[in-house]
What we know:
- This protein has helices spanning 3-29, 35-45, 67-74, 84-93, 99-110, 117-143, 146-157, 160-167, 172-191, 195-209, 215-232, 236-256, 259-265, 273-280, 285-296, 303-324, 348-353; strands at residues 54-55, 58-59, 331-333, 343-345, 358-359.
- By secondary structure, it is mainly α.
Amino acid sequence: MGKTEHGRFLLLALSLLLVLGVCLHFCLWKSGMFIDEIYTYGLSNSHYQPFIGHGEGEWMKEQLLTREDFFDYLAVTGEDRFDFASVYSNQELDVHPPLHYWIINFCSSLAENQFSKWIGLIPDLMIYLGTLVLLFVLVRELFSDDAAAALCVLLYGLSRVGLSTMLMIRMYVLMAFFTVLLALLSVRELRKPSLKNEIAIGLCICLGLMTQYYFVFYAFFLCAFTVLHRLWRKEWKIALRFSLCAFLGVGLMLLCFPAAVRHLTADKLVSGGNALNNLENLAAWPGRLRPSGARMCGRCRSPEEEAPAVEEKRACASASSAAAGPAHGVCVGCDCAGCGRALHLQHHADLRSGSGLCRPSRPAEL
């Protein structure tokens, strides 16, 4: 290893160590989970039962669920280790592809009979660091500058967006990994096209779509730009070869997970018709984008704007606790706008002590 390569490796290693330290700090302080994170564990580890309290195609209202019911739903128990077929079946009944859930099931199987935030955070952290390595290589590929590459790693790795993606135990950190990987492969394809690189792009598209359906928008525009660039240069064979590999990646994904067609065309699913309707409703774009921009800037709403929502959530929590009764309720079905989810989790400490009860009302639309 020459001096230049040694310095490059040292710069990347120092950047990753700094990001790792900050990530571990926030991981240690992570004390709760959003309801979708709970579903990540349930859909990954529940044995052919995607939603707790679900039976015979109906939601069993007013059913009391014990701590053991919750534990069986969230953790790998008994002989269910590495049951990837169960994960596949659960995701067919859900609205997301199964790749990230397979990873969580694999990690849960290594920690049998355990439910811990670290089962989700450790793979997320490893994927996040892998994304930063790819980002370093991508920036070096574009600018041939090690310092700029390390700066980009720190800017994204320590950003609110990046850290939130890693801390939330969902598939988005894995989608970010394939997003950067596809960008890197596309840059290399533009500079030096090869069949090997185009096959890698097809596989990346397949894996990205097996992670999150919204990956298709990013992949489409990036690949479309690459094809148009080849057509503009009159490189017809390369454009055709690249297009075939990209479409084969989509076809391979549909072959591996045919339920995606139903997910993407169902009107009542978040990943399906509603997403297309929202995309076509251009008039609503400013209202939808404004909260996202405010979050990135560190400000969501003013105290005056926040007060009604806080009161509404408090009222929702009070109603949930009252409905659960005085005996340490864990969660209760709630369809009000205050929580916006079917399950409103309360008193997490009681769940650990085994005194909690739950009354689900209907499945959440994830």
